Amino acid sequence: MSTSTSPRSATSAPPAAKNKGKGAGKGKKSKKAKKAEKAELKALAKKAKKAAKKSAKASKSSKASGKTAQHPVGWIEPAAEALRPGDLDALDCSSTPGWAGDRTAAEAQLAANGERLSELQEKLFADGRSGGTRSVLLILQGMDTSGKGGVVRHVVGQVDPQGVMHTSFGVPTAAELKHHFLWRVRNALPQPGYLGVFDRSHYEDVLIARVHGLVTPEVWGKRYDEINAFEAKVAAAGTQIIKVVLVISPEEQKKRLLTRLEREDKLWKYHPSDVDDRRRWADFRQAYQAVLDRTSTDVAPWHVIPADRKWYARLAVSQLLLDALTGLDLTWPLPTFDVAAERARLEQS
Ligand code: AMP
Ligand code: MG
Q: Is 296 helix (H, G, I), strand (E, B) or coil?
């Protein structure tokens, strides 16, 4: 393990303390002068206390929000807390939980997050190459047009693709159907050092499978516990799991599907079954609620992201990813060779 240096404290002696010794050893002072000095010291001490309070408050709120100097208004609550699952029916899909900034600020924050994400992902990759066992898995769920692909492009796309293992889960093939539903998921898990991304996942096996009756209720009913046990094992092996559901309103989905039908470059994304699934909105909503209620665990909690505003959804996923990677406390691997000796050898070569 390498050690990291802690930032040097910027605190200097408070003004009151600096001034305290100023008049020392100057002989006897008049009562009036003493009184004035006392008052001055009191005022300075008060000022210093106020300044210290202000700076502590500022550092506390910037720590919680991860905001940068350019964007004074940003996260007012950590994303993971603001996005805790609740009652889906009560969710306002155009809300921006935890974020007090506007779209412009969000886009700037997304760009700033991207730079940090990219560095941390490289550290993760380096760690994996040096015998580390850790990896990160982002699981994206959401109805058609909810923006899963946009998150992959605009958030995951900010890091080096060499370190990403991306998998889209569609209708299982005949070969996949011969196996347990978790088989294809296990095969797609990220290797150490990688950022794994699932566009849909094993959750389809308790969502579409439940809503469309692809298996009996007895079969899908057992899957929640199987999923929890599976994810607990994955987490114990070193994978940090981030589960995200992007929630759009039926009105917004209609708009987005219409765009797909109207634009030549979007037609390929449309599938007639999208309209059939729209008709079962309430059933899907119920199935999603069951997923949240039964599979949000300590090691793999769900985050519910209102997704009618794409800029917010992307920022929220980026923040969750960034916070998770930051929490891994990654350090650059130490060399397994003598750097000075290698430099000398290189110079002589
Ligand atoms: P898309 O994400 O739009 O490319 O569509 C993929 C389709 O595959 C969706 O309609 C999913 O519901 C479906 N799908 C994904 N996983 C499963 C699964 N395990 N069983 C049945 N359908 C699935
Ligand atoms: Mg689709």
A: coil
The pLDDT of residue 38? 60
Q: Which residue has the tokens 């794409």?
A: 310
Asked whether 83 and 75 are in contact (CB, 8 A), the reply is no
Helix (H) or strand (E) holding 320: helix 310-327
Decide: 22 and 14 in contact? Cβ < 8 Å.
Answer: no
Q: Which helix (H) or strand (E) holds 127?
A: helix 103-129
CA dist 241 and 223 (Å) reads 18
Given 3.40.630.10, 2.40.50.100, 3.40.50.720, 3.40.50.300, which CATH number is that of 72-330?
3.40.50.300
- State the pTM of this model: 0.81
Count Cβ atoms below 10 Å from residue 288 Cβ, excluding itself.
23
Q: Quick count: other Cβ atoms within 10 Å of Cβ 147? A: 24
Q: How many CA atoms lie within 13 A of 189 on its CB side?
A: 20
- For residue 134, report the distance from its CA to the centre of ligand 1, in Å: 29
Task: Produce one character per residue of 178-187: b if its CB has 16 or more CB atoms within 10 Å, e if not.
Answer: eeebbebbee
Average pLDDT of adjacent 10-residue blocks, the chain of 349 residues:
32 33 40 61 50 42 44 82 97 98 97 98 97 98 98 98 98 98 98 98 98 98 98 98 98 97 95 94 98 98 98 98 97 96 97
Residue ranges of domains in the chain = 72-330
Residue corresponding to tokens 């090691």: 299
Name the closest ligand to CA 260.
Answer: 2
pLDDT given at position 73: 73
Q: Scan for tokens 């007090």, then name that residue.
A: 100
- Name which residue sits closest to atom 22 of ligand 1, judged by CA: 171
Residue 188: closest CA among 198, 178, 180: 198
The Å distance, Cα 20 to ligand 2 centre, comes to 72
Best residue for ligand 1 mutational test, from 187, 198, 204 (most atoms within 8 Å of Cβ): 204
Please answer whether residues 192 and 172 qualify as being in contact, where contact means their C-beta atoms are separated by less than 8 angstroms.
Answer: no
Q: Minimal CA–CA distance to 186: which of 209, 211, 169, 162?
A: 169
